[in-house]
Protein 1
Amino acid sequence: MSFTLPDLPYAHDALAEHGMSRETMEYHHDIHHKAYVDNGNKLIAGTEWEGKPVEEIVKGTYQAGAVAQNGIFNNASQHWNHTQFWEMMGPGKPGMPGELEKALTEAFGSVDKFKEEFAAAGAGQFGSGWAWLVKDTDGSLKVTKTENGVNPLCFGQTALLGCDVWEHSYYIDFRNKRPAYLQNFLENLVNWENVASRM
């Protein structure tokens, strides 16, 4: 199957009042994500990966410890990352389901402590990358960060929440204030019901 750019699950301006502008969404989804889709399709054409699910491609092309990943991995992983990212956000500011609040409290001490650790991971990621809340292979919840397009699939983990800390995700709205972007993401943009559904 070829990569397909998914529609946003909400209007381009649906998150604007919560700190992610229509302009950001148009650049991020319509240009950046589309480029990963288009480039990925070109790169997998005629290879063993053509027709394979994106998750299989990500896991099959990841090279642990590689300074720069190959083009197929980079585009496939960023396509997967962004597809999850759109779903992990929403305009309605839904409350956090009780089971998720309980799990975060058990794992981190409190929801606030989780948010602190998640924001610190994103702010501390040097250069481009992602901050994640994952369910690890042993079932425990952990906060991680990854460089560039690397994601939890590469380590056998389940991604519960991810935040894009590439500059194209926040520079229009927050300029160089990545910590403020992360704080706003956690307080105003996360669809906690979606996060809970991934557990």
Protein 2
Amino acid sequence: MYNVTSQNGPDETDPQRIDWGLHRRRAVIGFEFDVNGLPVNPIEPDLPEGRGELWHWGEAVATDAIVTNTDAEGLRELLMIERDDDHGYAVPGGGLDPDEDGLAAIVRELAEETRLRLSPTAFRVQRARYVPDPRAGRHAWMVTIPGRADLHMATPPAVVGTDDARRAVWLRASSYAELEAAVIARGGRIFKAHEAMLRDLL
């Protein structure tokens, strides 16, 4: 859920000592630098100085598992987790481990947060996109690689919220409005960072 999985707390590295040239060459979304040589958020450059509530500097890449199930009657449900940090309901996902590719991270994060194990071949990896994460700052932001899996089962597979997911549930999602209503009916809200992505994909 957008934790940089290689860290157990904020990165204490002096950002001036990071090899930003290397980071820019490897970046999923290109970025520029400010007058102090620090990376600037490429989509929301006017956010407050610093890294906000994120633990890293610059770009961090995460993945999201967007798993739907459509039954024979055409009822579509989306697998969601309730985050344990009170940021609301989100799709399962999280940061890449060192040397891990996007597809492997999608499959791993899905299993870790919901105990649902799907084959990598079940997913269609989507184009990477900027995440409007409410925790971001001028010098730290998130990018995600979404993977979509569309199941066609009479009953969706059983899921359990684990790891940093308070619970995992299947919610009706024939449209974004229907999904939002289902989340509100549970007394929750959709994680702000996922709103635009889910509107586009639903």
Protein 3
Amino acid sequence: MPTLDAASRRTLLRIRVILALFVAGLVVSGLTAFPLEAEVRWLAGMFGSDDPSALARWLRTVRDGLADTNQRYPFLAYGTDWLAFAHLVIAVVFWGPIRDPVRNVWVIHFGLIACAAVVPLALVAGEVRGIPLGWRLIDCSFGLFGSLPLMLAWRWTKALERGTAAASDGSARRD
């Protein structure tokens, strides 16, 4: 990257911080996809076994389904292992725009497209798989909330690009 003025350095820092938070979210999401059965067992255990709420009933259903599936068909958990891996790989890709957001703005675009795609996938596939609407809306929120830091990063990257281009143009004219 060319030499930046103070305002551009602050903008670059904001981009790096918000993208680092996004990467942290992807990493946590990825790592938590490995021990699903234990996590859901713990989460269901936070509610009493006689809790009649819809959330508690759903968590017990998911817990029992995961336990039964992992007992009878453990190879199916391999799919969530790949889901976890995909989160980690996508997180690695975001190191490009953390280093140089202007040159790697395409990664931010990719992230925005992926976040937008979460909504129809959650609504359609969730319906086909019998996932309750409330749970599908929670899944949709990951796309919505994931897009917010990426929109900021994109906006700030465009501002940085304009500032960098103006600084480059100015220095080229002086030479």
